[in-house]
Specification:
1 helix; alpha+beta; Lipocalin; 2 domains; 130 residues
Length: 130
């Protein structure tokens, strides 16, 4: 086999390998959080609540709806970048405005992370996709 033919075949094999590797990485990094999530939130004060959030994902953008006995209902906005998720909303609790922020990571059908309740403190959360 001539050098030019070997070189051309080597280039073709290398390009195919790169494309296949890129497709595998894209498939692995594609996290889809669209759907209903059951959350468990534990606050610094030791209380535990079981809110739900329904998320809709369009690219990295998240929108949705949050429901909780403690905080009521609210519209949610946020982002998902790789496995990093963040969503937030504003509610009024006993006449006090509150900005709530969830930040964490997603692994398949589960997520976990931290919740910031502004002046009311922080906490942690876990979630399972329903």
């Amino acid at each position: 086999m001539r050098f030019e033919e070997m070189f051309a075949k080597t280039i073709v094999v290398a390009v195919v390998a790169l494309l296949a590797g890129s497709a595998i990485l894209q498939a692995q990094s594609k996290t889809d959080v669209t759907g209903k999530w059951a959350l468990e939130v534990t606050t610094q004060a030791g209380g535990t609540t079981m809110p739900e959030v329904t998320l809709k994902q369009e690219g990295e953008k998240l929108t949705g709806h949050y429901t909780s006995q403690a905080l009521g209902d609210a519209n949610v906005t946020g982002t998902i970048k790789g496995q990093q998720i963040e969503f937030s909303f504003n509610v009024e609790v006993q006449g006090f405005g509150l900005h709530v922020i969830y930040t964490g990571t997603v692994d398949g059908n589960s997520m976990k992370g931290k919740i910031s309740l502004g002046e009311l403190g922080d906490g942690t959360f876990t979630g399972k996709k329903q």
